[in-house]
Amino acid sequence: MFGYIILRDIPKELVQIDLLQFPIKGGFRGFAEVSPGPHYISIKVNEEMHEGFWCWVNPGEAVIKVFDYEKKVFKNDESENEAHFKNLALSGAMNHILISVTKNNFQSVSLWKNLTKNISSQNFPPILHNEVPMTLPLDIDPDNVSDWYLLKFKSRFEQAFNDTHKSNIQAFLGEFEFAFLKYLVRQTEENALDRWMNLLQAVYNAGERCVEASPDLFISFVNVVQYQFDLLKKEDLQPNTKVIAGVEKIIEDMKDTGTSKLIKHAQAFETYLVNRGIKI
């Protein structure tokens, strides 16, 4: 079952939902046939795309937002208006002034689902974390250096996956997906790009021990990242870029475990990269 996103009092020029943009004019009131899950909405204001908002759409429900021209922000509608427009949307009475998202955009809708499959409604939108890398204390006794690395040091991957996300695969990948999409839909979000790249490199450099400890995470990761790479330009996927540098490590570590399913997915990922013209 689909949901609805109703937009009130917006400039009628251009509207964006997820990866799709539509020119609009008077009478437009939002979107029908919206797949359940996370969505991004933006509009063109004064020749620029607005920062927009993220929302979670439940099946058979409607999200109602009003644009405040004075403050240039989207806000929740008054409770009476919200109830009124929800009833109109769910009854089908507004269908003639709504864009049906899925009907003529099945490929883009399917791609969005694949890009967001680990993002959960719980604690939505995901927080973009920023772990502080562990460094050797300056005042440590030289005799204790080995013990510090053995007993206290944690890699970026261990900090993010084990500590921040409590070894929850969906939570870790949900943040990874959200960071990528937050930058993709609005490329002024440099903090989102930084977080995505940090997590990318953290996984690349996780090491064979971490792969063996959480094989399902790494299998899911190489599947997720292929959908993301499909949206990147060829110049972004060169060996000297941060996106690709080190990718051979995770492929090698997955193979070195000797586990058949890890080897299978590592080989599939390697084949994908080769087909994209990426030398590793």
TrEMBL record:
GO terms for biological process: spliceosomal tri-snRNP complex assembly. Belongs to the AAR2 family. Residues 5-122 form the AAR2 N-terminal domain. PANTHER family: A1 CISTRON SPLICING FACTOR AAR2-RELATED, PROTEIN AAR2 HOMOLOG. Pfam families: AAR2 (PF05282), AAR2_1st (PF20981). This is AAR2 protein. InterPro entries: AAR2, AAR2_C, AAR2_C_sf, Aar2_N, AAR2_N_sf. Residues 157-275 form the AAR2 C-terminal domain.
